Amino acid sequence: GPHQGGKLRQGTACLSALPGVSAGNGCGHTLLTPHSGTLSSKNYPGTYPNHTMCCWRLQAPPGTSLLLAFGDVDLEPSEHCAHSSLLLADPQTGTAYGPYCRNSVPSAPLLVTNSSTVTVLFNSTSHRSGRGLLVSYATSQHPEGVWMGGSHDPPLTMCFSVYCPAGCKDIHGDIWGNPSQGYRDTSVLCKAAVHAGVIADELGGQVTLSREKGITLYESAFANGLRSKRGSLSEKRLLFHKVCFLLSPVCDDVLEIVAFNASSWWHEVDILGQDRAWVAKQAALSTTGHSWAAEPSAEAAWLELDLGTRKNVTGIITKGSSEQHNYYVTSYHVYSSRDGKNWRPYRGSSGRDKVFEGNADSQGEVSNAFIPPIIARYIR
């Protein structure tokens, strides 16, 4: 009958899902890595679709075990969760957890397993309501647990540390503020950590932050592929730090650039016949007037910064030309060199040459973090 057919489809999809991979037509936002990850049902937090399923196979390194955090399990209730359900299976020990739905939710928000492999199966039939599910995981190397939700849920101490899983950038929820001011305390904490550049979304990681007195207005900023919102007064705010007991900011030094070089520069003659040289030294962020620009016909243009000696470079800020000239760079690659001759592309944690998201207008500043940092004298 139909019930047996459903079982067969589930089993087939779970068998075909490789470790660290999802399979099925009910999978939503998913990022699975060996050390942490985030997964959700299709359309989350909107109503999940009828007659869908998804199977995720989580695989941690040998010798570690998986910790699962239930951010949200909102599946329409039914007897024994027969219509829509979340089921977890530990193939190494033969243990099963669930099935879960709205009238049978996990007893604790964090599930500690004894296995490095867990299969997560989501299944739906006909229903009318339900947000679906949002689940994250980390390994037992992070005993303090895995975090994903709003910042009002962590410990109430002024200073605390949590582990944010990979994949938080694209989960539902808003952030207000920026790295220098801090973030409104109602911001989604791990999403704010990606915006602040303290973790890479594709890796996740430990974050340390303090809860400080709120401020009147939180300014919007575009950073690390995320735009925060402009927000009003809050009672508390969140600030990210290198370590808690020193309360040191994540980054507080602007590196001095000894010299600028470029592939070419634009020698402009304006409508009044006056010369304007868009030379490389005009690229400094604090420069008044026009900026650097490559020769208009140039392909693969580059700008090069000489820091004088090898430095630890943790990020870059870009801005458009000026309010008078509506020019800006929408995306770019980064290369580094220790001698100015041999250049290495920045690949970040993905292993591929990273494309950084740049500006969308000529006025705003856009920040991008280097995780891991670059150690070099020259940046191109």
Automatic annotation (TrEMBL):
Its main location: membrane. SUPFAM superfamilies: Galactose-binding domain-like, LCCL domain, Spermadhesin, CUB domain. The lineage of its organism: Eukaryota, Metazoa, Chordata, Craniata, Vertebrata. Residues 27-140 form the CUB domain. It comes from Dicaeum eximium. Coiled coil: none annotated. This is DCBD1 protein. Pfam families: CUB (PF00431), F5_F8_type_C (PF00754), LCCL (PF03815). Residues 135-238 form the LCCL domain. The keyword Lipoprotein does not apply.
